[in-house]
Design a protein that fits this description.
Length: about 250
């Protein structure tokens, strides 16, 4: 029972916190958060949920002192955000006033995502924009356009902005030239399309081999070196395969 609770309760909530609340900490402090920090770990609601599930579902009996301490711990988790005790003073953060997420894991894990505004917002005006779990500048969500995408140096931010517009729409708006196309041997019924993107770079437009949660197959683009003229060879290169090896695939994911 303990292992089941660890997987279905604590692990799920911990991963969800890493993909949402911790993102705000990284933004606020402009630094990398280290998951090995025990103090932040004890404040994660995943541990509160873990021990509460042991008590409620597994029948674990707490002593009166353990119950008293647990109730204090749970009360803090319900009433505020992270807090930092110092000698003679304690800094306490407010809880966010809005959080927008999407389910992305098999055990109900969530990550920040909102297509029309901040994914997380605090009362003091601090907010974070996120696209399917990736932190992005606000323009990616509020006003993605070809000009801004062309100036963006971060590959992940650029990818998110293009996904928001839609690859087909982006290709039309950017006026990308079709180099060649071919049936996708690794994804029967779909087509690989190779476009000129910028100097020494081309983009391969493909259809995901796996079905998304909404039942659709996502269309996505992959940048490849500009020397590719054959979309099958370009697709193979993204997997570390030759064109001949990729052509033998029965189904890619």
């Amino acid at each position: 029972m303990d292992q089941l609770i660890r997987q279905k309760v604590r692990s799920s909530l911990s991963q969800s916190a890493n993909s949402s609340l911790f993102m705000v900490l990284r933004v606020a402090h402009d630094t990398q958060y280290h998951l090995g920090n025990g103090w932040y770990g004890t404040q994660c609601v995943s541990w509160v949920a873990h021990y509460d599930a042991l008590r409620r579902a597994a029948g674990v009996v707490f002593t009166s002192e353990q119950t008293r301490r647990f109730d204090l711990w749970a009360a803090v988790a319900r009433s505020c955000g992270w807090w930092w005790p110092r000698e003679g003073v304690c800094v306490i953060s407010e809880r966010p006033i809005a959080v927008h997420t999407e389910v992305w894991g098999d055990d109900g894990e969530v990550r920040l995502h909102r297509a029309d505004g901040p994914a997380m917002r605090y009362a003091d005006g601090c907010d974070v924009h996120a696209w399917h779990g990736t932190q992005v500048p606000s323009w990616v969500v509020t006003d993605p356009n070809v000009r801004r995408i062309g100036r963006e140096t971060n590959i992940e931010v650029r990818r998110c902005a293009i996904e928001h517009i839609g690859w087909t729409s982006y290709i039309d708006q950017a006026g990308l030239r079709l180099v060649s196309s071919a049936p996708d041997p690794g994804n029967p019924g779909s087509e690989l399309r190779l476009y000129d993107m910028r100097k020494e770079t081309r983009v391969l437009l493909a259809v995901n081999g796996s079905v998304e949660r909404d039942g659709r197959r996502r269309r996505y683009g992959l940048t490849v070196p500009g020397f590719f003229d054959d979309p099958i060879a370009a697709a193979g290169w993204t997997y570390g395969l030759s064109a001949e090896q990729y052509s033998l695939l029965l189904r890619r994911t």
